[in-house]
UniProtKB/TrEMBL annotation:
Keywords: Membrane, Symport, Transmembrane, Transmembrane helix, Transport. The keyword Transmembrane applies. This is Divalent metal cation transporter. InterPro entries: NRAMP_fam. It is found in: Membrane. It is a multi-pass membrane protein. The lineage of its organism: Bacteria, Pseudomonadati, Bacteroidota, Cytophagia, Cytophagales. The chain crosses the membrane at residues 36-52, 83-105, 117-136, 143-162, 182-205, 217-241, 261-281, 302-323, 329-351, 371-395, 401-420. Signal peptide: none annotated. It comes from Imperialibacter roseus.
Length: 425
């Protein structure tokens, strides 16, 4: 039992990585705007996260290779696929970094009355020192305990909501997509299934047995999903327009004055730890795909530092611009939700590589689940891109059934291509 508990704690780094400012913002706003009707998106993304993270860890357990090395073996004669997969993850890290720093600044601003630029320079400066010195991991884990405490506060607050059990059940199992707020739905998916976590999960799989990996991963991600849902339920107590100040007030009413400070500290901790994690993940991704065996891609190498430095600068710029935090964080989550099908497609193709996976190759159920994840995220992503184009050209018409049929067909075409590639093995 002790070994199992330690294994769950070991894999909880995955759920800790996706419970950041993005999760707090998107889930709280979903609850404030739409009640419990979008719980299904968090349930779907939690289950999808389990499927994809299990696949990422299984690649390393089966082959002893990182995802980047597996991608090289699978797409060695298709360099465009490596660039597409690596580029999608690294671009997603840059988007996350903008939201991370803005979230950390917002948390600090709830505690201290200082100009935002002071927090921005301090946070990015400390992150740069830690990344340069290589001690970021231990600092991030210790500060992350504050996020766990905040999660408990949200779980407690969720018991005070006014929604019935029937309404919560319908919200969990009957998908609803608000036509005017699909960006929020994509954000809810993108906040749980973090593409760079696939590379992190692959690394954690080294030395693990398949059974213990699956048990630890499922329980750890499941608990993270429950906390995310508790954040959404707590958000139903908040009123619009949504703000971090309003959410802190909700927790203060539920658990007393400590609730406000727990939220502020947790939001800061979530943003600060993720400010370190996103640049680090981008370098691990780049190193894994393009830098095998090269000195410049080692932890103190030039290319390694250039990649994390570039990601950190993106966050610094967004922090200094003084933009409203909630829209920036929502956009970052939505961008990663749109990029998610690319990462999921690459992972699925690697998992069906017969030369690489041998006895651990994807079975029919895993392939069906993977195709479903790609299909749903493709539909949501194409739908959002299409709406953005229509809005840009001033389209004022309704988005009726023919429109949805067209979007579904557009999502179906790459899905058919992926299915053919998988089953041709």
């Amino acid at each position: 039992m002790k070994k199992k508990l330690l294994n769950i704690l070991f894999w909880s780094v995955i759920s800790a990585a996706f419970i950041g400012p993005g999760t707090i913002t998107t889930a709280s706003l979903a609850g404030a705007s739409h009640g419990v009707s979008l719980l299904w998106a968090l349930l779907f993304s939690t289950l999808a996260c389990m499927v994809l993270q299990e696949g990422a860890a299984r690649i390393t357990i089966a082959s002893g290779l990182t995802i980047g090395e597996a991608v090289e073996l699978t797409f060695g004669n298709q360099p465009w696929m490596k660039w597409l997969l690596g580029g999608a993850v690294i671009f997603g890290c840059a988007a996350y970094e903008a939201g991370n720093i803005v979230g950390a600044i917002s948390g600090a601003g709830l505690l201290f009355s200082l100009p935002p630029w002071v927090f921005t320079l301090a946070i990015t400066g400390i992150a740069a020192v830690l990344l340069w010195g290589g001690s970021a991991g231990s600092i991030a884990r210790s500060v992350g305990m504050l996020v766990a405490v905040m999660g408990v506060a949200f779980l407690y607050t969720s018991f005070f909501i006014n929604e019935s059990l029937l309404a919560i059940t319908k919200g969990l199992f009957i998908p609803q997509i608000p036509a005017d707020d699909i960006l929020l739905v994509i954000g809810l998916v993108g906040t749980t299934i973090v593409p760079y976590n696939l590379f992190l999960g692959s690394g954690l799989g080294k030395g693990q047995q398949l059974g213990e990996m699956r048990l630890g991963l499922i329980i750890a991600i499941g608990l993270g999903g429950i906390v995310s849902m508790a954040v959404l339920l707590s958000g139903t107590l908040s009123s619009l327009p949504f703000s971090f100040e309003e959410m802190a007030s909700v927790l203060e009413k539920a658990v007393g004055l400590p609730g406000k400070y727990l939220f502020a500290l947790g939001l800061f901790a979530a943003g600060f730890t993720s400010t370190i994690t996103a640049p680090l993940a981008s370098t691990i991704t780049a190193q894994s795909i393009w830098g095998k065996g090269e000195k410049n891609w080692e932890g103190t190498g030039t290319y390694y530092r250039l990649v994390w430095g570039a990601i950190l600068i993106v966050g610094l710029v967004f922090g200094l611009l003084g933009l409203r935090p909630v829209p920036v964080i929502l956009l970052a989550q939505a961008i990663n939700g749109v990029l998610l099908p690319v990462a999921a497609t690459g992972l699925l193709l690697v998992l069906n590589n017969t030369r690489l996976m041998v006895s651990h190759i994807n079975g029919p159920f895993s392939n069906f689940a993977g195709l479903l994840i790609v299909g749903v995220t493709l539909f949501l992503g194409i739908h959002q891109v299409a709406r953005a184009i229509f809005m840009a050209i001033g389209y004022q018409g309704s988005f009726d059934s023919p429109y949805f049929v067209t979007i579904s067909l557009l999502a179906l075409l790459p899905l058919i291509w992926l299915g053919i590639r998988i089953f041709k093995r």
